[in-house]
Structures are given as C-alpha cells and as structure tokens.
Amino acid sequence: MGRDVDYAGRLYFSGRAKRGILRKWTNESGHYRPKRELMSNAGLPEELFEPGQFQSLISVILPPDND
Length: 67
Prior knowledge:
The structure is a single chain. The protein is largely without helices or strands. It contains no helices and two strands.
C-alpha cells in the first residue's frame, strides 16, 4: 500500500500440546526479502530466528525434454 515495512516473514507456531507458542520465525515473505541485520525490527525473539531457504526458478530441476 506504499507504506514502509519494518520487517516481513513467516511465523511458525506449535501445535496441539503447546498451541499458539512461537516455535520459529523466518524472513521468507515472497518477493520482499529483508536482511538478517534488520530482524530486530520485527520485535520477535532473535534466538527463534531461522533464515529463509529461498529457492529461485533457476534452482528447479526440470525433467529432460523428450523431443
């Protein structure tokens, strides 16, 4: 919407036994890839941070073309 972003990423919460407890968070958010150095902007526990595993289209292995 044209506004500044402090941080972006995914939050992962625990399931059944400890429902709603933050397990980890990443900087995976689609096209916007914030740097790890900016993670303090998120206001989340830094010890639970895991850098995202971004995959580009180049890294996708396609089957051989059978022409």
